[in-house]
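Same chain as my last thread, 213 residues:
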Amino acid sequence: MRWLLIILFYKVFVQLFLRIIGVKWIGIKNFHVPPPYIIVSNHNSHLDTMSIMAALPIKQLIKTHPVAAADYFGKTSFTRFLSRYVLNAILINRNRKEGDPSPMEIMIRFLDMGHGLVLFPEGSRGEPEELQVFQKGIGALLSRRPEIPYIPIFMKGMGRVLPKGEKLLVPFDSYLAIGPKCYAKQHEVTLIVKEVEESVRLQREFLLHLLNP
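reply #2:
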């Protein structure tokens, strides 16, 4: 029942809604990669996660999880239910109690089960189309599981459709440039972070060139 709810939400309601407001996916075939994998993207809007998830093939959708902060997306019993059973998210407690598994341990457990993750290495929503410095988490994760590929994405326009702090949607052409899967070539955490960030920047350059030849 849970999987049916997730599929109906993303593949029927969300996908239709995103098409209506002008979201376009470029390189969607690059999502045809069996999990485990880590999807990495810039982050400007609450629409970002839904735009990624709605584009995934159904078999991958039910095994792919956005990673979200429990103190934000799990404040109430309703938001916890929505996050876990509709959005298919993994809720990470940033203020964990002693003895609780770390966020890294939780993510690795899901990867080892053959599932995929959606991460926003910037950590928070920034200014539209302006990449912030990537945090070390993605580098630490890939350093422990270098055999798992990551899929870089750059999104353009999402921050204008639903800007940070706003509740009203503004229809606006938005794009997701989805790159081919990559494997970390470096071994040191900070170098892996730079490598992943560069992969996302390459998708940004590709998208800008495509829109402004």
